[in-house]
């Protein structure tokens, strides 16, 4: 398994989104110990010519021509870069990775390769060199076939027209599917692709995958091929850790006729392993919808850790929003604006129930220091650490502090939306040179970051002042 193994991915096709953007979102999750993240721009001159993988130190030569791209790497690179997410200057996005699952039959036929590539390497190896999502799949596939991998991963590539979701199987095999424009996907830490047709024009896969499945007798189903059944897992961890997350988001986003719908035969069963991969939303989905889902903790059910269920119910299933969220990104590629402002790297730092998303432009020379320079050790002058402080305090009394955060996030959503619209209109009105465009958008990001920094510090003050009245160490009689 990866060093990081607990993300949640949500994808929204352009006809399923509110403004016809493609939306690629993922929580990057780690451990209970805080794992600070940075937001950076990687200039082509900073990209290495030979890449040394984190695990095994394999040397991989890289193409000479690289594109500029954004990324959200670890502040502490002792365990690898983990670029995680970004949009390059061709307005192609990549999110990597969703750690997934496999089974012993697959690994017996195609074992992992210890000295190979993994999640820590993938964004750096692929995103600077692709100009379409399909190119991303093919470049990643070629690297997997040549160098192998030591873990199972799901990853996403998108532009303004397409989203491709890709999964790896064993040491060298892979498959990818183009997400239909009117669909959305929620993908937890399991192998997620279900029905798969090798003859479809909307899929890609390692050349020998059909023979690999047939030769090793991996398909347990009669009739159609289901990759989740064939190459994935179905164990107690999926029941407690993975399936409920898909169930909760689909419960709110999909059109399900209760008490029974043939596509959702187990709609009231959070542990159901067979909820569909490709889903159709009951309404068009927004950035705010995705952020709500990726911050959720089974609100409205007995399984909410902050709710009124029994202690056993509240601890039964792994939530989506939790203390291990390191950052959440929504990579939006907009079709209706000039190319320079089409890519928006929405970003929230630390625990999702206590952060807010900022719509950062990606045609920029640099990122705001309070996101870029996050230190490894605690410093609340940076958004990651400031937000994590809110989360630690807020977790003590969610009823009290959750209301304050809700008002903060609702207000900041409106403020940042208005700022973005103002920048968009000013950009359209002006004829910027490429250099002037970069300068304008870099400054726009700085202004939005400072607005969020000030509001978040104010919220921390509200937490402290409000919480002081609720401390256990107090006495009603005073002189």
TrEMBL record:
It is an enzyme of class 3 (hydrolase). Pfam families: Peptidase_C69. GO terms for molecular function: hydrolase activity. InterPro entries: C69_dipept_A-like (IPR047804), Peptidase_C69 (IPR005322). It catalyses: an L-aminoacyl-L-amino acid + H2O = 2 an L-alpha-amino acid. Keywords: Dipeptidase, Hydrolase, Protease. Its EC number is 3.4.-.-. NCBIfam families: C69_fam_dipept (NF033678). Belongs to the peptidase C69 family. This is Dipeptidase. It comes from Megasphaera lornae.
């Amino acid at each position: 398994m990866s060093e990081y193994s607990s993300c949640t991915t949500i994808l929204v096709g352009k006809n399923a989104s509110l403004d016809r953007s493609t939306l690629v979102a993922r929580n990057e999750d780690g451990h209970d110990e805080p794992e600070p993240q940075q937001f950076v721009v990687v200039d082509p001159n900073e990209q290495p010519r030979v890449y040394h993988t984190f695990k095994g130190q394999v040397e991989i030569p890289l193409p000479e021509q690289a594109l500029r791209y954004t990324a959200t790497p670890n502040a502490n690179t002792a365990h690898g870069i983990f670029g995680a997410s970004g949009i390059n200057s061709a307005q192609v996005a990549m999110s990597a990775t969703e750690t997934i699952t496999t089974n012993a039959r697959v690994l017996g036929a195609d074992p992992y390769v210890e000295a190979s590539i993994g999640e820590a390497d993938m964004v750096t190896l692929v995103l600077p060199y692709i100009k379409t999502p399909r190119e991303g799949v093919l470049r990643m596939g070629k690297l997997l076939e040549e160098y192998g991998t030591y873990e199972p991963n799901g990853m996403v590539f998108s532009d303004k027209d397409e989203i491709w979701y890709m999964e790896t199987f064993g040491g060298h095999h892979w498959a990818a599917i183009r997400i239909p424009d009117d669909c959305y996907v929620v993908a937890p830490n399991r192998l997620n692709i279900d029905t798969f047709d090798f003859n479809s024009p909307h899929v890609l896969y390692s050349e020998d995958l059909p023979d690999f499945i047939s030769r090793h007798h991996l398909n347990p189903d009669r009739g159609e091929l289901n990759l989740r059944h064939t190459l994935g897992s179905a164990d107690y961890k999926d029941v407690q850790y993975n399936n409920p997350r898909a169930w909760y988001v689909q419960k709110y986003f999909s059109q399900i006729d209760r008490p029974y719908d043939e596509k959702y035969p187990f709609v009231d069963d959070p542990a159901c392993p067979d909820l569909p991969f490709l889903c159709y939303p009951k309404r068009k989905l927004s950035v705010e919808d995705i952020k709500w889902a990726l911050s959720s903790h089974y609100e409205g059910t007995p399984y909410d850790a902050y709710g009124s269920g029994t202690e056993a119910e509240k601890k039964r299933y792994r939530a989506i929003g939790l203390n291990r969220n390191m950052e959440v990104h929504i990579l939006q590629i907009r079709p209706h604006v000039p190319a320079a402002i089409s890519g928006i790297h929405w970003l929230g730092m630390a625990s999702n129930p206590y952060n807010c998303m900022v719509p950062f432009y990606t045609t920029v020379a640099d990122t705001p220091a309070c996101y870029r320079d996050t230190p490894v050790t605690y410093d609340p002058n940076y958004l990651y650490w400031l937000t994590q402080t809110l989360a630690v305090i807020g977790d003590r009394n969610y009823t009290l502090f959750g209301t304050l955060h809700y008002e903060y996030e609702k207000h900041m959503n409106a403020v940042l939306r208005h700022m973005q619209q103002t920048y968009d209109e000013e950009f359209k009105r002006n004829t910027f040179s490429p250099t002037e465009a970069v300068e304008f958008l870099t400054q726009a990001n700085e202004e939005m970051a400072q607005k969020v920094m000030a509001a978040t510090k104010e919220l921390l003050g509200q937490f402290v002042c409000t919480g002081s009245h609720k401390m256990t160490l107090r006495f009603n009689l005073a002189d």
